Amino acid sequence: xxxxxxxxxxxxxxxxxxxxxxxxxxxxxxxxxxxxxxxxxxxxxxxxxxxxxxxxxxxxxxxxxxxxxxxxxxxxxxxxxxxxxxxxxxxxxxxxxxxxxxxxxxxxxxxxxxxxxxxxxxxxxxxxxxxxxxxxxxxxxxxxxxxxxxxxxxxxxxxxxxxxxxxxxxxxxxxxxxxxxxxxxxxxxxxxxxxxxxxxxxxxxxxxxxxxxxxxxxxxxxxxxxxxxxxxxxxxxxxxxxxxxxxxxxxxxxxxxxxxxxxxxxxxxxxxxxxxxx
Length: 278
Description:
By secondary structure, the protein is mainly β. It has one domain: paralog of FGE (formylglycine-generating enzyme). Helix content is 9%, strand content 16%. The chain contains three helices and 13 strands; from the N terminus they run E-E-E-E-E-E-E-H-E-H-H-E-E-E-E-E. The chain has helices at 122-130, 139-147, 173-178; strands at 25-26, 46-47, 69-72, 75-78, 82-88, 91-94, 106-110, 135-136, 222-225, 229-231, 248-249, 261-262, 265-268. Strands 3-4-13-8 form a four-stranded antiparallel sheet. Strands 11-10-9-12 form a four-stranded mixed sheet, with helices on one face. It has a three-stranded antiparallel sheet with strand order 6-5-7. Strand 5 and strand 6 (91-94) form a beta hairpin. It is globular, with a radius of gyration of 17 Å. Mean pLDDT is 83; it is low at 1-59.
């Protein structure tokens, strides 16, 4: 792995019903059963906070951005880290956030209270955004959204606050599962983000937001931007390659992915005519 990849050293059709509800339980999946569906016996499940609302504001036809996106300057930015749905002959189904989407017909969605997609490359993230009529965020628009209207170092202010985002005293899955080994195989173990005290549901830390109403832009998962870097850090590191919204890792090719890499989508204002759950 490249030297400055510090993050791994510290360690349309039917809509999806499974993502939306008062209480969602995402079971674990065994490494040998990625294509066979979910298994309840492989790992600690991620329980979504039942107090989180999944309901979007009513859509206004003349709004510059749909309710699932924040209006930032002349851009629309997904309010939440992306999750994926897979398009099948029978409709759309939830895609595992613990599996790389390579070779799958998926599109990106932005929803509160779901496990965000990890194990995704910049190449696949761009494809998933395009499938929903969006694009991968440009570096500057991502940074502007993260810093908020007051242009602060963190979404919540200029001074680091422990526990404000998903980046404080988290468990290293590589240490827990693989005795600290960092290899292509271990870094894409589907059990990594299913361990307790690792990845959390989108929007679970209300304090990790700002006046634009974007969430989790620091911590939780790294987010690819269109300059082939990933930003904001992830749950084990939000400062070694820059502080908070200034965090930027450039060590990897656009085809790279591991348990820490995620994304969100952006669009030009007025370019998405209706929300329709995207």
